[in-house]
Amino acid sequence: MNILIRGGGDLGSGVAFRLHRVGWNVVITEIEKPLVLRRTVSFANAIYEKESIVEGTISRYVSDSKVIPELIKKHEIPVLISPERYSFPEYNPDIVVDARLLKIFVEYLLSTKPMVIGLGPGFKVGKNCHAVIETNRGHYLGRALWEGAAISDTGIPGTVSQKSHERVLRAPASGTIQSNVVLGTLVKKGDLIGRINNEPILAPFDGCLRGLMHDGIYVEEGIKIGDLDPRLDNKLIYFISEKSLAIAGGVLEAILTYQNMIK
To answer: How much is the pTM?
Structure first.
């Protein structure tokens, strides 16, 4: 089975990890400068670091699609900069998973192959995907939907140790992110995490820096650029979240169900 995943952030990487673990071929496509926050569990980080290892699984940045077969033979996940294409002469996917979380309608022309699976808002079964996976935390998280659409974006972050909105680090100004703080650092309330155009990014409470965009990325004021974990356990930053794995389970179910439907 050839899987192509559009978007290698933490949710897309959870899907890639689980599908790769069951023995399928996985390729990830991304933009030139991925806006990944949880870099320690994001295969897209290979674009910045040349390779990314998530729970023992290796992804590797490749600049040419001709290298895809070689990396697949090594049981690695190729990551390409290709925001528009999702099929290559060297790799024709059976399944396309759109994990970019754009939260807008994305155009796909549906046919029997490839199967298109959309994660979260912006996808409607029969219009631009064959199945939708619910990404909203709660009772329906990870559910594979065969009609209708996912729940609209609530804009409410998940609650961890009674912290919700305050976990999110937002850009205090428009500009380029600059930070010397390593992911996994335990910070105190008010500690300096970084700057954007000399405006400080401050820790809102005592916590572990779980996510932060790469230095040098330009962002607009107010957008999410990172997150803080109140649990003060920096080992957790190296493990795929329960949300990502739940969504990945829904993708796996959808693929197997669809294969039975078209037999």
So the answer is: 0.94
